[in-house]
Design a protein that fits this description.
This protein is an alpha+beta fold and about 160 residues long. The chain is built from 3 helices and 9 strands.
Length: about 160
């Protein structure tokens, strides 16, 4: 049983640098490898540091979104600024979000853990709401006691 809550959020925008995930949506190993390769690349080439430098808070957004029938994955931040490297302004709708909290050893492990808990446990349990698409995000919020902590935010509607 997943520990989750429903929370009302105002609309918000995340500036992201992204990649298209080419693995089949059921190929979790392939998707996770593509995501890991992407995160390694944005850390090594300095793109993630450039995003962090213009962020309006300390949160890193790990965003998944379907765009033009493509599975997209982004590293993003909340900001009023822009970067030449940025590939998308990601619009999150106003409304209810299912929120799952967690912690893990690394940002990547946190994102994978929260995604599994949210889609595999919390959404099936919260049978009075539905995810109808749109962007969803794991939010890396910081570190404490040697672990990375954060939340998964998934926009939902009442059934």
């Amino acid at each position: 049983m997943a520990n989750y809550k429903l929370e009302e959020k105002e609309s918000f925008t995340v500036l992201g640098i992204g990649t298209e995930l080419k693995s089949d949506y059921t190929d979790y190993m392939g998707i996770n490898k593509e995501k890991a390769d992407f995160w390694q690349a944005v850390q090594e080439d300095g793109s993630l540091d450039k995003l962090k430098a213009i962020a309006s808070n300390d949160y890193i957004f790990v965003v998944n979104e379907a765009v033009n029938n493509k599975m997209m994955h982004y590293a993003g931040v909340m900001t009023e600024e822009t970067l030449p490297e940025a590939t998308r302004l990601i619009q999150f709708p106003e409304g209810e979000y299912i929120i799952v909290e967690g912690e893990a050893s690394t940002d990547e492990e946190l994102s994978n853990k929260l995604t599994g808990m949210a889609f595999g446990e919390a959404l099936p349990e919260a049978d009075y709401v539905a995810y109808v698409g749109g962007p969803n995000t794991a939010v890396v919020m910081g570190q404490r006691d040697g672990l990375v902590y954060g939340e998964m935010w998934i926009p939902v509607v009442r059934k």
